Amino acid sequence: MSALAWLIPCALALGGLGLAAFLWALNSGQFGDLEGAGWRAIQDDGDKPLPPED
Amino acid sequence: MDRTLTHSSAGRDSSRVIGRAASPQTVSLVVDSMHCGACMATVERTLRRIAGVQDARVNLSSRRVNVAFDAAVTGPQPLIDALAREGYPAAEAVETAGKQDARRADDLLRRLGVAGFAAANVMLLSVSVWAGAVSDMDDTVASLFHWLSALIAMPSIAYAAQPFFRSAGGALRARRLNMDVPISLGIILATAMSLFQTMRGSHQVYFDAAIMLTFFLLIGRYLDEQVRIKARGAAENLLGLKALTAAVLDADGRVERMPARALAPGMRIHVAAGERIPVDGRILSGSAEIDESLITGETLPRMAGPGDSVHAGTVNMTTAITVEATATDDNTLLAEIARLMHAAEQGRGQYVRLADRAARVYAPAVHILGASTFVGWMMAGAGWETALTYAIAVLIITCPCALALAVPAVQVAATSRLFGKGVIVKAGDGLERLANVDTIVFDKTGTLTRGEPVLRNGADVSEATLAAAASLAIASRHPYSKAVVSAARERSVAVAAAPGVLEVPGSGLVAPCASGGELRLGSASWAEDGGGAAEARAGSLWFLDAEGRAIALDFEDAVRPDAAETVSALKAAGYLVCLVSGDRSETVSDVAGSVGIDAWWAGVKPDGKIAFVEDLKARGRTVLMVGDGLNDAPALAAADASISPSTAADVSQTAADAVFQGQALAPILETIRVARASQRMSLQNFAIAIGYNIVFVPLAVAGHVTPLIAALAMSLSSIAVTVNALRLRSRRLALESIRRAS
After folding, report:
1. Cβ-Cβ contacts under 8 Å, B43 against chain A
2. Would you give the distance in Å from CA A53 to the centre of its chain?
3. Is the predicted ipTM greater than 0.85, yes or no?
4. Span B452-557: which CATH code?
């Protein structure tokens, strides 16, 4: 039973880590556009403004 | 002292002026034709190339792009123009309460995340305790696990269940009962009792049930919110794309394009042929035929000259005119329509949603059952502690978890199915109201018909003539010209623009012919001027060919391709189908005959349409109004349920419960089918939820429900309800017949 002493905190910490990651993702707007996010992964462009074409 | 203050405020002002020199600004543009990553990349790249644009970011889910730009260098209109050149029609988004909704959904998602985390961990501990009960776990470990559960569950519940507590508090303050009252009571009592039992080292601990309940209920709440956001966003995009821009003439006669809502009385606006008039106004110069079908339902255009008043939403059919915007006060037609609509909406009555109706019966029943369990066991001499434990078990078992998921889950499945078919359901209770209709009232122009002219006597016109006429017509934006070109394209006649086409305002088109002479397309008098024999008649153009023969091209507002089919399907299913139009009697009877509607009324004014709908309602009918024009908007609001095509006037789209896209009327059938199916499934879900209660409530009242059974019953009923709802997404549905009220 002494294993519980470190197993339970471990389990909670891992769960907490997951929750923290979720909240971080939510707050940084990553759930705002679930459709577009998939496409962005395969795009080459950065986020910077581009120079005018001509 | 005074001086310092003045000085400091001046200093602040100047810094603001410096800040304005760069004047960063953001705008949200609707780009509805984006569908994939390639579109997204093109749109972002196009915008970022424009000087002054700092950032452009597409949101593909909402079909919008947020652009940050320097207002000193560029503005929304150049951005929209640049996108239009790339083939993406764009418009400024109509800003409404959408952002607030999104924040509320985010808030729910955050609470959902916390509840999910807590539920997973508490279940982990609970399952160990249940397993331990039949093996070798001793009481100290079980007690430790209970304490751990308490530590995780209590703060999580305090945070995650707040939406329910708030809603229940609001209802109680108003001396009402809603579904959230038993929910909150169940959660709070279960948590408090579990804490007490944990302190005593007993086994009746319900932390897992309390947090799972919160988790499942939050899922239902979140789904509900998502459906609303998606529907509202889509509806706003449609409106945004239809938003007009106006060519405003300034004092020097220069033209500047600006959005119609920025127009002020007194501005002079240039309206080209084929354009929609953006404001109520008076014609300053030019005279033209005005298509007022959107307002009056009348298909034939009206001739208007200098001094005549014109209404927003009507189309200039012939020549360019200059319009002066008149005061946008309460006397405008739009304001009048809005007033009628407001009055009519109140007449729609307080429709009570299915879930709320269930709550009205269910919530008191749950409380009475819980209370009588407590009293019963007290009287049986069980002691207050046992009695309270059993009463809480009853509350947890009966907690309307499945009930709260039942309707949102069905709504998500139904709206996403309809969304795929081009139907946007806007009102939350729209589907429920649509499911109950037994009478369908159609408008004519733009609803049963396409609302744009098509060539009627195409069969009498030879291909060579059509090709020659189209070669002139392609140079014009007149609706009839467009109809000639599309008729030629439909018959796969090659259309080449004739060289040297000249458009004479108010008359027609003329071009020199290669073999000498000239080709003319226009009014009867225009053809006669060219030497042809033509007679003036309504809804016709005359084409004068190279040999000097005048050929009539007759136009009509064609019936939508599947209108007759749709009407007969509705009639076969037992619906009463009517046609009510503001148009002339002959036209209406023609259309009614061709689609197979026996009950039709012509020349009906907007208030007449309301009266018609009210009359049907007074006779016990449940009315679905399908219409598009401004003149239909009040009737749309007055009817029990309403549908508009996406080409409808803004006001009508706003009033309608659902908006459908495309040329076909079939989406109306699909909407009714899905609405009825979702109503049935909601009831099925209630039956499932109540079925569980019938099995478990006697156990709970008798005191046989352990925390394990409570958790199992709750999860299983929630999952069963959700799975049942998801069946709606892919099932084949037939339009079932309704029982006809005599």
Report:
1. none
2. 35
3. no
4. 3.40.1110.10
